[in-house]
């Protein structure tokens, strides 16, 4: 027996809404069934259409509902048909402890247990288009959720806009269309509080005194376009008002109604400052002294000019000067105010002032202008000028208050860009926008906007990683971003190296995800934006590389400068050259280079330095293809010390302007240069006596003989019995004798004379431009006397001297040397300890010789002999105390100091005798334990071990000569420390 209409209807809805069973649901329908859903266009006319509709609905919403029927009524229609009406309550889940329920009214016509026609309706506004049955209900329907998704996508784009956004319908009172969270937060309202405070009308958030002005302003501007700008006061929570600048556009809402959409930002401080300054300007008319005092203490600047013409300046406040980076003393009055304007703005400002001149002069109104001023550094600032004209003593003056609006102008530019960006984004975005369905991990790209090979991607991110779309270095960041979203984070982003297609190139993409949640907090989907940042990444990488290279290079430099040679000016200065900054703004590069070169560069290097850095020379070098120039010179460093420095200049053309530019670097090379000079010096000098070596002395003498005519004298000096001194008392004492002999010889003669060591115990002296024979004899006598007095207590060291004269005895080096040597031989044969002139040898006469006591004539056992001197320790110490070099003697086993000479005490600050008995590594090296670099293992008695070392106690580098000696009959270590700077001197 067929079901009754009641059983049929209840069975149908149990299968349809409760069990979500397609086959069972269709079993209750006649083939020609007509079914009208709750939406506007949801109608099916056959069971086939019903099956297709139900399949789609069950796939989108598979879960069932709880059903409750009441108010049933059955009516018999005849012919086997019956009409059945019932109320149906459909429930699912809970919201705050209560089931979420939807009430439906159902009317159906049945025949023999089947439904021929059915109609369902709801008494609320929950229904949306394309729904046969409400698929979402409660406080948020599926359509509302879709709107939320779209709103969140827009919100993601709004974040780049500084300030707040508000929109209202262009109807009476401007009913609220939209206000973003940033605007609400800035005003201090919640959404409900704002609606309550304004009644949902934007006109109520405008100050009553401003409403008519705002209305007229917007109406007037929209008559000629879709954009408007207006300033007014806006209501904040608590009843106070702020000044805002409103930049808006007329757009169309979804329902076709016109909307005014605005970007607003707070200008209260600017308005307040502007009002204060304008009031101050009016009050200070005719009060020049008071004007100056006030103008110098208010923000911005005050300017007084003769109105008209070139606006000749009468007064410029200190604030105006400060805005441009000048001191008050650097700007002269009487010039044209237009000279301060940025060149590109001059014509416009002049035109605007000429057009407004009549209103300013005749009506006493003010003029507001915005333009750029040129700063001292060559850049510009934006200012807002309020100008009034005042007649004083028959002369019309212009008074202006200028405020630096650079920051505001930059913000306005950014707002305009943001507004344009928002406008474009609302229509279409150049970025890739997609939805990430969190439960299924599926990505769906916006229709027509995807660049991938598919409009949808499954199992993201695993699938794209497996396909090789993500570069290995970005795998971790990509996974973590999606894991954050899966965990319920509100937002996540990452910069990923990926490719859009399987075979495409890798590009850098910034992916941003914003999560949308269900009412219960469960994440449902995320709106994603993909932005190609490849160009930025490459620029960052290139910049970082260049910056690291530049910083690495600059870190070793003492100064750096960028010079525009075409414009003859410095563009950047740092390091030592910062002293040029005082004149950088008012002088040319050439003037700065010449003036400061004279101040800082060594006078001997000045001519060469100036010729190198000369602007014309650098331009010629660039034209000739030279791109790198070097110049070594001496100059003062930060410690006011004259040191060697290397100037390196790179020449290049500016790719934009074509100007020839120079990048100049200054590097301290003093240590390297000193070593180089020291090596050059050592190549010319005898290391023991610091006199010229034989080769250098010979070359210098040859040059003099070749280039200069005149009377010159050639001396050869030989120490008597020097071999016996070395053999008997060791080479150390022999070296002391040679060193002291060289020292006294260099003191006897002029700096223009040449004193050298020929080798062994032989020395030569070439005295140039000798005025008389008497001087020759006196100098020869002084040489013998000086050597014999080296060790006054015994007078045990003597010398023999041979003398030849130019031109009498020869004009060449060979002739003079040979004849002086022959005279020396004669002195030796005649008993030593005397000098002999060559002409006396030639004439067989010795009458001019000078005889001193010969060392070989001392009686045996005479305590004044050299042997006695060297055998007495106190006198050997006396010899060492005469040396400029530091000498100390220590026990090589215990490191105990036996002796330290006076040079060490005078250099270190120790009291004389304080070091003896202490460890050498403590007193000399400042260490608490033996030196790891100690040379004891390499020393012997036969020769010196020579090395370099920086002494931490004396804070300088020394050349060290170490060897073993006998000290009071015991093996000892002697070290001689020589300051390289004294060698150079």
TrEMBL record:
Q: Name the source organism.
A: uncultured Anaerotruncus sp
Q: Where is the PAS domain?
A: 171-225, 287-360, 872-918
Which Pfam family is one of those matched by this entry? PAS_3
Sorted keywords for this record are:
Nucleotidyltransferase, Transferase
What are the recorded GO MF terms, alphabetically? Answer: diguanylate cyclase activity
SUPFAM superfamilies, per database record: NTF2-like, Nucleotide cyclase, PYP-like sensor domain (PAS domain)
Gene label: yegE
Q: What is its EC number?
A: 2.7.7.65
Q: Show where the GGDEF domain sits.
A: 710-840
- Name-wise, this protein is Putative diguanylate cyclase YegE
Cite the NCBIfam families for this sequence. GGDEF, sensory_box
Describe the location of the PAC domain by residue ranges: 228-279, 367-417, 492-545, 627-681
The answer on whether this UniProt entry bears the keyword Oxidoreductase reads no
InterPro entries cross-referenced by the UniProt entry:
Biofilm_reg_signaling (IPR052155), GGDEF_dom (IPR000160), NTF2-like_dom_sf (IPR032710), Nucleotide_cyclase (IPR029787), PAC (IPR001610), PAS (IPR000014), PAS-assoc_C (IPR000700), PAS-like_dom_sf (IPR035965)
